[in-house]
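Support request, please re-run this one:
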Amino acid sequence: TLWAQSKTPTPAVTRTQRIELVDKDGRIRAELKTSGEDALLVLYDGQGRLRTVINTESVVFYGSDGKMKARFDAQSLSEGVKENQ
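Re-run finished. Output below.
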């Protein structure tokens, strides 16, 4: 397969407040956005349920039931390292 190259130049910088990644059916599967002073990457499963939120301080995982299953942040990870030393 040959890929056609665009004659339109690609901008060096794109600025926006939110990017949505959607599947072939138009459902949001991921968002990259700002919230207050933070930046977030939010991931959804194929049914549109929230599954993972990543920000500058933590990673939070949710089950298919919508309940938080695990949270990791810089402080808890550094405490875990101290406990294992």
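The chain has a mean pLDDT of 87. The longest strand covers residues 28-35.
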